Amino acid sequence: MGASVEVGPNGRILALSAAWFGDGARRRAEARRTARCVECDRALPSHRTPYCSRKCQWRFHGHYFWDSARSYVMLRDRYTCRLCGSRRRARELDVDHIVEIADGGAALEYSNLQTVCRGCHRAKTAAARSARAARGRGGPDADPMDPF
Ligand SMILES: [Zn+2]
Ligand SMILES: [Zn+2]
Questions:
Q1: At what angle do helices 66-76 and 54-61 cross, to 10 degrees?
Q2: Which of 4, 20, 56, 69 is the most exposed place for a label (fewest CB within 10 A)?
Q3: Number of folded domains in the chain?
Q4: Which ligand ends up closest to the CA of 45?
Q5: Total-model pTM
Q6: Residues having C-beta closer than 5 Å to ion ligand 1
């Protein structure tokens, strides 16, 4: 899903996804034709829209676009930091890659995204950065004597 999306550091989409206009357009047209939600397959009241709800709209867009993935993940997590449990307004929250993109985490995979508050996000990002730096200085991943 979304393999052709071009993603920069922090999950920002660099270019509009070709997949959105190809695969995405085809799936939305099919959903309107069959009157079933493109995301959850629930029956739709009309053929006007391919989504049963705002939530499914964000969720579907989020397979292709970072901003929508962000909106959906905050809604899913009930605007609550998954690290310290504090509930905040959307503009005081970030959406974080559980496994950072620099460490091979998927940019637009919901299972790799979580809602975090600013303070927790800063702390986690700093910890990941120093862990990467430690590996770069010859941690277990960079041991020259390790044949693997
Ligand atoms: Zn739906
Ligand atoms: Zn927090």
A1: 130
A2: 4
A3: 1
A4: 1
A5: 0.73
A6: 37, 39-40, 42, 52, 56
